[in-house]
């Protein structure tokens, strides 16, 4: 499934914070949305998830206007993981992950074997199987983040949108998460992540979108987008570049 933004202008508190942004997310690719704090990344991601109504422009899912989809139909196709997501009830982890199957169930329908398999797969993929009986409110921040990712994956959405999903994860789980979403995308799904880690973006994303002050200022491969000029002009930094095992790395080194 493809997801596109057509000349999206988005407002927060009556002020435009995203100005006429157009972009396309393609199946089979991990897209990274980068930019300084306040650039409009989360607002854009929410609009792509159908959770923020544009002041102007459209988001389209496979060419159809996103707001035309019923909530449940949209939720089956589009999985959205918000920034610093949390759960306020002490539900066992397995029940939280099973909530990800709701878009697939009819009214009053109970989970079937297919749903149970999907929940088990998501618990295994995110490495939280051993936490399945623990109340989610008693987990560490990183454990909870993996459980909430499992909830989204349990829904097996065609498109996964995640806002700073690796913030709060330890290095092992950051790399594990990025490998997981890369495999997910390379199975023909569409993935877009808001990221602050330039290094993970360089290594794991196929395409990057760089936002600054509500504008899309660059898009392309990591090499094209993370060039010294953009890092200087947009982030005000200089970086160290290199390659290991044929994959690029970018380490922020100092202020420009
Ligand atoms: N509910 C709100 N009411 C008013 N202004 C808001 C609201 N939410 C966000 N904003 C403003 O909109 C702009 C874009 O915010 P957004 O959260 O999209 O940025 P971001 O690029 O995701 O930032 P960060 O990297 O800090 O998470 C910011 O200037 C922010 O202060």
Automatic annotation (TrEMBL):
Residues 3-238 form the ABC transporter domain. Keywords: ATP-binding, Nucleotide-binding, Transport. It comes from the Bacteria. Gene3D superfamilies: P-loop containing nucleotide triphosphate hydrolases. GO terms for molecular function: ATP binding; ATP hydrolysis activity. Belongs to the ABC transporter superfamily. This is Iron complex transport system ATP-binding protein. It comes from Thiohalorhabdus denitrificans.
């Amino acid at each position: 499934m493809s997801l596109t933004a057509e000349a999206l202008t988005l407002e927060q508190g009556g002020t435009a914070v995203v100005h006429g942004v157009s972009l396309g997310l393609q199946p089979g690719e991990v897209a990274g949305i980068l930019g300084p704090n306040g650039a409009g990344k989360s607002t854009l991601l929410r609009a792509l998830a159908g959770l923020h109504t544009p002041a102007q422009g459209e988001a389209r899912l496979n060419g159809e206007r996103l707001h035309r989809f019923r909530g449940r139909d949209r939720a089956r196709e589009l999985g959205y993981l918000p920034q610093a997501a949390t759960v306020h009830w002490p539900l066992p982890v397995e029940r939280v992950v099973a909530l990800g199957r709701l878009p697939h169930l009819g009214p009053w329908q109970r989970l079937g074997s297919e749903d149970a398999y999907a929940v088990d797969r998501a618990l295994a993929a995110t490495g939280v199987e051993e936490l399945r009986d623990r109340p989610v409110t008693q987990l560490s921040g990183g454990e909870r983040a993996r459980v909430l990712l499992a909830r989204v994956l349990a829904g097996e959405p065609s498109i996964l949108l995640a806002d700073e999903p690796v913030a709060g994860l330890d290095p092992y789980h950051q790399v594990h998460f990025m490998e997981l979403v890369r495999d997910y995308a390379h199975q023909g799904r569409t993935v877009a992540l808001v990221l602050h880690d330039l290094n993970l973006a360089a290594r794991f994303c196929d395409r990057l979108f760089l936002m600054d002050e509500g504008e899309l200022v660059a898009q392309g491969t990591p090499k094209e987008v993370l060039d010294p000029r953009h890092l200087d002009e947009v982030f005000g930094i200089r970086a160290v570049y290199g390659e290991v095992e044929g994959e690029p790395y970018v380490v922020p080194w100092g202020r420009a």
